[in-house]
Amino acid sequence: MPGLLSENNNSLVPFSPEVRDPIVYHLHNTPKPPISRLSISWSRGNCLLVSFFRTKLPSSESDTNAVENPNEEIGGKVVEVKLSSENGEVDDVQRRKIAYDSVSPFALLQSHKISAAALSNMSLGSSNPFNWWQHIMDYSKDIKALLENSKPPPSSVIEDPMEVLQTVEEPNSLKAAWELLEIFYADKQAQPWLPERLVDWLADYDSLLSSTMTTVHSKLVDLQKELVNLQAIEDDPKYWEGLSSALAVGWLDIVVKLLRLHGSYQLDQLGNRETENGLVEAVAVLVSKMPRMRSEWNESILGECFKSKPDFMKSWEKWRGQIAKLECSAFWVQCDHRQTREGLKNLLQIMLGNSSILNTVTCHWMELYISNFLYVRPFTMGLDGMYSLAQKCMQVKPLSNTHCLMGLILGILGDNIEVVLAECSRSFGPWMVAHAIELLTAGNTQAEVLLHEERYNLGGISIEELHRLVYAQVLSSHPLTWQIAPVYLTSCTKQGMGLLEILLYKQPVLHNQLLLKVLEICRLYDLYSISSTIMKIAGVYHWKHGRKGSGVFWLQQAQDEVRLNKIAQQLFDFVGKPISDTSFKQWEGLIELLGSEARTAGGLEFLHKYRDFKKSLQQVQDGKAREAAQQAIESLILLMKNPSTPQRFWLPLLHDSLMLLNWQERPLLNVSQTNLLLNKLQDLSIARLLPDYVEADLPTQALGSVRLALATNLGRVILEE
Amino acid sequence: MDVPMNQEIHKFPQSKYINAVRWISPHSAFEKFIAMALHDTDSDVSSIEIHSLNLSNQPNLNLQSSWCSNSRVSSLKVSQTPNKQIIAASTFEGSLHFLFFHPVDVSLDSELSVTEKSFHSGPISGIDLLSNGSECVTLGEDGRVNLVNLGDSRLNYRRVFDSQGLVSYTAAKWASPTEFVTGGLGFSLQWWDKRKPGGVVSQFKGGWASGNTSGIVHSVDIHQSRKHVCVAGGSLGTVFAWDLRWPQQPIFLSGTGSNELAAHSPSASEVWEVQYDCYKQSSSISNTSSARVLPVLMCSEDGVLAVVEQGEEPIDVLVEPCAINSLDINPQNPSDVICSLEWESVAFITRQ
């Protein structure tokens, strides 16, 4: 029962806890065997229908049951189970938006790949690596841009001096994960500055980690709330705690801002707290002068930037010297305010890289890790060094509650592509994996081999293709996103086209708009045989539902001669039958429709003429005598002369025109015309002796009466002439 | 064919599929209202929503009023009379609904509908509302052409023609209070006069289509000042004009079906909607002689919104990676265009 499932954490599919009572439908009829007891099928969206069928009990027992318990379902029941998404942060609508927006960057990168491959085939191995990295970076930036949350909070024009933390946009894990991958795999230009990139990363996304544990960010948020109510903030230990924590993870702008809120800056206090204020300002200046090794200068980042290592090291030594000098300064003694003195000294210790203090002011291993980069080992390079440092930090601050990003970071630092993929897949779903593989394989030969290798146990496809196919399946399952699945399927060389065919055949042909969208996809990918099959399906569907015009149109578009001929054959069946006024109109319309087709001309030429004949005949019956009768005779002679008129129609035609042959006023046929018809009748009599002759559906005396009429007519004509 | 820079584009994600968009005349000149036919695929709920368009520094669409439909909307038209706004919507189930919109208190008022089984069998594929809102023509793939008369508080309809499925109609447009034009399969167009019994007055069969492929007319438009010329858009990127005075000689504005235009055609796929572009006309009034077809704005399955003009290079207004399914030019201010995109969003373009 579904209720039990939700309590079980080992369930295969995530079950959303907010839907406590799934919708249950009761079946009132027992399905006939053979039928399975249980059936599972997808419903709309991410709804799963689980049907339980009851097998028929022995009759006596089931009867008593039904009487005793009228609510008890007879046939079984269907339970609608709504499955939750893998990632709680992103809802379906957002997921679709991400899917739509990522189509263009993905398709662009694929086309670059194809052209690069073609280029390197032409001139061996001369592909431009710089260009390639540019494409990868463009792709990564496009994807990152679309992961941004669309609504930035309203920012006030006047800056609040008390606002220490500025929220630019609501961060999301998906973007955080993508940025991590970009830092480590796509942005080759920034490799030497990896630690500083991580500092920035944590500054942007530390708030995400607050959901599961205390972080520097959450500390600062608490401090922010209290700042407004505090008179002398320097007396509050929380102020100093926040300061040192922010400094430890390198949020220098916040540190400087907080320091300037120190009470000694207030005009009325400046006089008697001069030394204290000087010390605060000295620390603030030192903080803002911290040398940093960064690739680009960013206005919002405090500190002095250096691009080359020697310059940086020189300046770093100098800066450390200044800190050490300040530490030993005599002014500390003159500072009366104990909290200020201790707090500032603490800050200096952090900047000098005192590891025990760093340990206490940071909240989790990642923050400790960052503080180590900044103050203990600013020259750490290489992934190996970073990994061992990470492990050390984790020993100091073990993870109690794992956030989905942590696993990803460890996988990346451990240089284990499989772990990275698994983490992406587990925490962020098929979209992430399908798109992140592009970054993973960008310059990493080992990863490329791993992900591009065709595997027997995957049915001969590579891991890359597998994940693309999985994502394409997710897209295909939704009526709004299936149209973008072809972009991913066509990038799968082994099984993509086969699945695309299935996808296209699965689309309903009920409405022309959808049908035309399917055909457009066929046109884009040159799938002409599929498009013609789909048009045939549509043609037959419309024909069966009484929309004969649409049916013929689609069959003609598909050039389906077999079915068009069958339709023409149906028209032949009308020959010789009395046709009512309304059915004549229909019939005429159908000939019109088929008429635009050149290739079925043989049969249709006959039908056209027969229609003219029938029309005149009808006019004769309506009493519009002579001219019409003469016209009908001419049509009849034309029909009988024409070699394309099938022999089996001769007798019905003549039988139809009995009235003309027996025309009271005067004979309408001349001698030669009569002879022609008599000859045809003669041929017919001979043909009747042959074994394969098919008797027309006419009265038995038809042939006789026609012969008699013709003979009479001949007699009358001869007499008249 | 670069997209001109002198225009502003705003996109508004809707999180639902948009079947059609239309402008609604506002009560005052400072307001802009839009009617949208939406479909939520997850809950299978269709609706018609009225949104106001705010063009502040952060342009947005604000939901004002909405109405739930029993089935997906196949066609949406609005009568452009300032005091009485009527929104007509046809559905895939073959019903027709009229909603009355109050521009002052911005609400959808009452509803009148035709839901009889005998009205249309299957989806209604095209409707058009007379500009005074008194009469609506409906047509469908079932081959029926109906006229619905909108009285004070009741509707009555009469059948003009029933081809019993032999001819399917896809698009309609009134030329005058008594005449209208329809389009259908095989690039065919029909001219009807309701004063003359028996239906079609003049007919155009699009037998020109190259080789064995033909197409469907998806949209027709008639300019109020030139009632004898109608433009039609359809398959193969085709936009052509049909002049009643030379009924068997279509004038091509775009399309891959004819050789001389194929290279310049902005689109090679289905043209979903065409409308005479009054904005383009006013800018190049000097070289518009009476014999020439006026410029036309079109949108297509391959994501192009472009102005096509007889004998001139097309101008792309918007190029999207997904289909543009419907468009509407603001009748009050022809520089404003609104269009619906396949990927669940609405685009608003203002040209300068």
Automatic annotation (TrEMBL), chain A:
Its main location: nucleus. This is Nuclear pore complex protein Nup85. Functions as a component of the nuclear pore complex (NPC). Keywords: Membrane, mRNA transport, Nuclear pore complex, Nucleus, Protein transport, Translocation, Transport. Belongs to the nucleoporin Nup85 family. GO terms for biological process: mRNA export from nucleus; positive regulation of DNA-templated transcription; protein import into nucleus. GO terms for cellular component: nuclear membrane; nuclear pore outer ring. GO terms for molecular function: structural constituent of nuclear pore. InterPro entries: Nucleoporin_Nup85. It is found in: Nucleus, Nuclear pore complex. Component of the nuclear pore complex (NPC). Pfam families: Nucleopor_Nup85 (PF07575). It comes from Aquilegia coerulea (Rocky mountain columbine).
TrEMBL record, chain B:
Keywords: Nucleus, Repeat, WD repeat. Coiled coil: none annotated. Its main location: nucleus. It is found in: Nucleus. The keyword Iron does not apply. This is Anaphase-promoting complex subunit 4 WD40 domain-containing protein. One of its GO terms (cellular component) is nuclear pore outer ring. Signal peptide: none annotated. The lineage of its organism: Eukaryota, Viridiplantae, Streptophyta, Embryophyta, Tracheophyta. It comes from Aquilegia coerulea (Rocky mountain columbine). InterPro entries: WD40/YVTN_repeat-like_dom_sf, WD40_repeat_dom_sf.
